[in-house]
## 1
Amino acid sequence: MFITFEGCEGVGKSTQLNFLKEYLNRTGQEAVFVREPGGTSIGEQIRKVILNPNNTEMAPVTESMLYASSRVQLIDQVILPALRAGKIVVCDRYLDSSIAYQGYARGLGADLVKKVNYYAVENCMPDVTIFLDLCPAESFRATPGNDRMEQENREFHNKVYEGYKAEIAISNGRIVPIKPSFDKNVTKNLIIDALRQRGAIK
Ligand code: TYD
C-alpha cells in the first residue's frame, strides 16, 4: 500500500507522520517513510537547489522538473522496491504537491504538471492520500519559514489550497480530506481510522 500525506505549510503534517510511524511500529506493520523533495542522495541534492532562497531566478517549469526528477529517483530507488517487498510506503508530499504548488500557485496549470510527471508516476500512484485540510489563514504556523517556497506570500499559499481542493474533487475518493483538530490525538485517530477503513493499514 502506498500512502501519501499532503497539505499547506504548517498544518501539522510532520507530527501526524510521526504518530502514524509510532502506530505502525506498535502494531508490527512494516513501513518505509520518505519525504519529498528528497529521500535519496540525489533527491536531497535536488532539494537543496529547489529550496535555496537565493535561487530567485528559477523558472516555474525548471522548478516543476526538478521536483519530478527528485520523485523519479525516489520511486526507482525506494518506493517501488519497498512496495514490491510488500511493505507499506508513506510519503510526505508527492504528485499532488506539484499540482497544487507548481500547477495552481505558480500558474503552470494542472495539465502541464501532470505531463511533466507522467513518466515518473505512471506506475506509481498512491492508493490513499491524506490531505490535512487547513487553509493558510487557519494554519498552526505563526511565522513563515526560511526556504524558497515558504517565503512565498499568502496569495500564493491560498492558491495552493485552492489547487488541492480542485484535485480532491476529481480524485475519485483517493484524496481524503481530514480537518486537523487542536487536539493532535483527535487528528491522529481520524487519520488512522480513515486509513484502516480503506484497507491501507491494519
Ligand atoms: P518541506 O520543508 O519538506 O515542507 P513541508 O514541511 O511543508 O512539507 O519543503 C517542501 C516544500 O516544497 C513545500 O513548500 C512544498 C513544496 N513542494 C512543491 O512545491 N512541489 C512539490 O512537488 C513538492 C513535493 C513540494
## 2
Amino acid sequence: MEHLDIIMQNAQQAFETFRYSTGNTRKSLLYAIAEALENDREAIISAACAETNLPEVRFSGELGRTCMQLRMFGDIAGEGSWVEPVIDTADDHRKPFRRPDMRKMLIPCGPVVVFGASNFPLAYSTPGGDTASALAAGCPVIVKMHPAHPQTARLCRNAISHAIEKSGLPLSLFQLVDDPGFETGKYLVQHKLTAGVGFTGSLSGGRAIYDYAQQRDNPIPVFSEMGSVNPVILMQEAISTKGHEIAKTLGASILMGVGQFCTNPGILIGVKGEILDEFMHLLTTEISQHPAYKMLHRGIYENYHQSMEQALVQKGVDVIYKHGESEDLKAPAVLAKVSAKTFLENPLLREEVFGPFSLFVCCDHLHELEKVWSSFAGQLTTSVFGTDTELLRCEAMIRNCAGFAGRIVFNGAPTGVEVAHATVHGGPYPATTDSRFTSVGADAIKRWVRPVCWQDCPDFLLPDALKNENPLHLWRKINQSFSKEKI
Ligand code: NAP
C-alpha cells in the first residue's frame, strides 16, 4: 500500500497551502473544473452510457447538475460567509470577571476520502457533491473510484487535473485511486492523514467504512449516505380526485434510473378499500406501459433479484404486478401489497429493495396508517399525497415524521433531489451515519470543517474573516446580531 501512502502525503502537502487559499481562488478552481468537464462532455457522457447501461439523456442531465453543483460551491466559497464568523467582543467591566474577546469560525479539516457511488457516476462520484464541497472548504480530495465506471472516473479525473493545473494549484489537490477492493478502502479510511470520509452506497458498505474510522487511534468523521425506503402516504381524497396524476408521478419515480436511486419510493401506504384498489390499478397501468431496462451492473442486478424475491416470499405478501421480461440485466418492475398488521410484524419488509420495486402497505384505518408511518427508522425522505383538508386533519402525524426523515415531500415524488441552499439529503441512521449533516446542497460543505475559537487574539493575528475591519465583507454575528459592519 506504499502508493496510497504517497497519495496521502501529497494530499497533506497540498492541504498545507490550499487551506489558506482565498475564497475567490477556490471559486475560480471550481468554475474551471465545471468548464473542463463541459469541454469533455461528449467523451464523458459516452463512457458513462457504455459503463452503466443508462441512456444519454440521463447523463446529459447529470453532467449539467454536476457542473451546477461545482459552480454553486464556487459561489459559496467566493462569497465566504459560509465560515460562519461569530464575534463576542470583550467586556472589561463585566463583574465579577472580565469577558474575554471570543471569535470563532469554521476551518477546513484536512484531506478527505470520497467513495464514488455506482448509481451516480458524475453527481455523486469523481466530480460530485462530495468533491465539490470539500474543495470549496479548502480540503484536498482522494476519490476511491467505483469499479463499475472506471473509464468515466478517469476522464473526469483528467478534466479536474487539467483545471487544477490551469489554475496554478498543486495537482495533488485531487487524486483518483483506481485499485478496487475493500482493503484499499479500509487502508484509506484508516490512514493517519485522512481527516474525513464521504460515502454513498449500501448500508453494509457505509457501516463498514464508519466502523473502520471508529477503530482508528484517532476516530474521524464519516458521512455515509446509505439505504432508504422513502415511505409515501396516500391519503384517500387525494388519490380519489387526482389518482391519474399521482399514479403518473409515482410511476415515473419508481422507474426513474431503473429504480436505482436512494430516494426511490419503496413503500406506499394507504387505507384499504375501493379507492386504494383503484389507485393500485392506475399505478399498474402506468408502470406496465414501460419496458424493463438494464441495471447498472451484475452485482446490483443480482442483489435486486435476491432482495425482491426475499420480499415476495414473505408471508402475506401478494404480487400486484410483475414485468414479464427476463432478459439478462433487465430489471422487472414489481408492485406488491401486504396488510399493515403483517408489515408491522415483519422487519424484513422494510429493508431496501434497490431497483424498481414498491410495496403497498394496506391499513384498516387512519389510526393504523399513523402507526405504520411512525414505525420507520431513519429515512432520507418521506412523502405525503393529500388534499389541504387531509393534511390539516393529519397535522400531528405529519409533524411526527420529522423525527425519522431528512426531507418531507408534499404532493410530489421523493426522487429528483433539488440542489439548493435549503436541501437536506440526510436523515437518522440507517439513512446516514450522521443525521446532523446533508450530502447534497450548500450545507454539505459543513462536513469538512471544524470550528475554532480565538480568545483575546491580537487583530493582526486573526484570520481575515474575524478581523475588526471585516476586509472580506462577510456576514458575521457580532454580539448576537448579524451584520457586515466593521468593529
Ligand atoms: P457498495 O457495495 O456499498 O460499494 C460502494 C463502495 O464502497 C465501493 O467502492 C466498494 O468497494 C466500497 N465498499 C463496500 N463495502 C466495503 C467494505 N466492507 N469495506 C471497504 N469498502 C467497501 O455499493 P454499490 O457497489 O454501489 O452497490 C451495491 C448495493 O448497494 C446495491 O445493490 C444497492 O443495494 C446498494 N446501493 C444503495 C445506494 C443508495 O443510495 N441507497 C446506492 C448505491 C448502491 P469496491 O470498489 O472494492 O467494490
## 3
Amino acid sequence: MIQLTSIRLREIRLPLREPFRISSGTMVDRRIALLELTAADGTTTWSECVADDMPNYTAETIDTAWLAITRWIAPRVLGRSFEAPGDVHAVLEADFRGHLMAKASVEMGMWGIAATQAGISLARFIGGTQATIPVGISLGIQASPAHLVEKVRAALSQGYRKIKLKIMPGRDVEYVRAVREAFPDAPLMADANNAYSLDDPAALLAMDDMHLMMFEQPLAWEDIVRHASLQTLLKTPICLDESITSLDRAQDMVTLDAGRLINIKPGRVGGLAESIAIHDFCEANGVPVWCGGMLESGIGRAYNVALASLSNFQKPGDLSPSARYWARDVVTPEWTMSADGMLTVPFDVPGIGVTVDVDRIDNLTVRVETVAH
Ligand code: OSB
Ligand code: MG
C-alpha cells in the first residue's frame, strides 16, 4: 500500500555542456523540476518532471507543470491509499485532461516509493529483464555538415550504438548525406521534431535511400493520419515520438500503419503505467520500442533506465551518460556507458538505483514549494 504525505517541489538550473538545438528551439540551461516524495511509512524518493522552459516540444512547460502538480495533482494523491502504483494513472486521468509530464512526475515517484518499500530495484519491480541496454546519442543541429560529421565521428569512437541526427528543412539532406558518406555502415536515424509537412515531402524522400534506421516524428506533434500517408511514400520506417501520448494513440498508429516503431518517454505518456501498457501492446503486435530522453538529470534518467530494461526495448535508447549533458550530475554514481556503448541497469540497488546528491541540489535550487496532506 502506498500513501503519500508530502511532495516537495524544487526547481534547479542545470547548464548543459553545450547548447542542444532541435528544429523547434534551442536548450542552453535546463530548468528542471525535481520532486521529493514522502510516504506515510517514512519512505522517501525523488522524481523529475521533464517539461522544459518553452512549450516547443509539447504544450507543457515547467511553469504549467508546477501549477498542475501543486494545484490539482498533489491534492488528488496526497493522503490517498493506493494498492499499487499502477493504480495512480487512472486516478490522475479521471476528468483531468492533459498535463501528462506533470502527472508523470508524481506517478513515477510513486513507483519509486513502491520499489523502495519492496526493497528491490525499480527495474526488477516493473519486471525488467535486460541487465544491460545499448545506448544511442541524440545530436543537435550543427552549424555545418562538416561539424556534424565530426560529432558523429566522436560519438562512434565513444561506442554509441545508434546515432540520432536532429534535422530541419535546410539542415537535412546535405547533412545526412555527408554523415552517411563518411560512415557507410553506421546505425543512423533522423529526428525532425515535426518540421516537415505532407505537402512537401521532398527532403524526406531524398533521405529515404540513405539507409536510416528510422525517421522520428517528421510531421506535426499530434498527427497520426498524415504520418500514415507519409509512411506509404517511404521505405524508411517512421518512429513516432510526440504523437504517442497514450496507449490509444499507439493503437491508432498500428491500426493505420502511421509508424513502425515508438520512442517511449514516460514523461510524455503520463508515467510508467502507461509506458508499460504501450510497451506490452507493441510487443504483442511486433512493434519494437526504444526509450527516448528529454535531457533529464540523473534522477529522471533512473526511471528511463528501469523502463528500458523491459524486454521489447529493442533499439538503443537515448540514454547518454551524465557527462554528455552536465559538468556534474545530481546523482551518484553518475550514469555511465561502457566503451562498447552499453549501460548497466542497477538491478541490485533498491529503489531508483542512484543516490541523490541533496547538497548539490540545494546549491542549484532557485524555487521550492511543499504540498502536504
Ligand atoms: O525529440 O527526442 C526528442 C530532447 C529534448 C526534446 C525532444 C527530444 C530530445 C532528444 C534528447 O532527442 C535525447 C536525450 O535525452 O539524450
Ligand atoms: Mg524525438
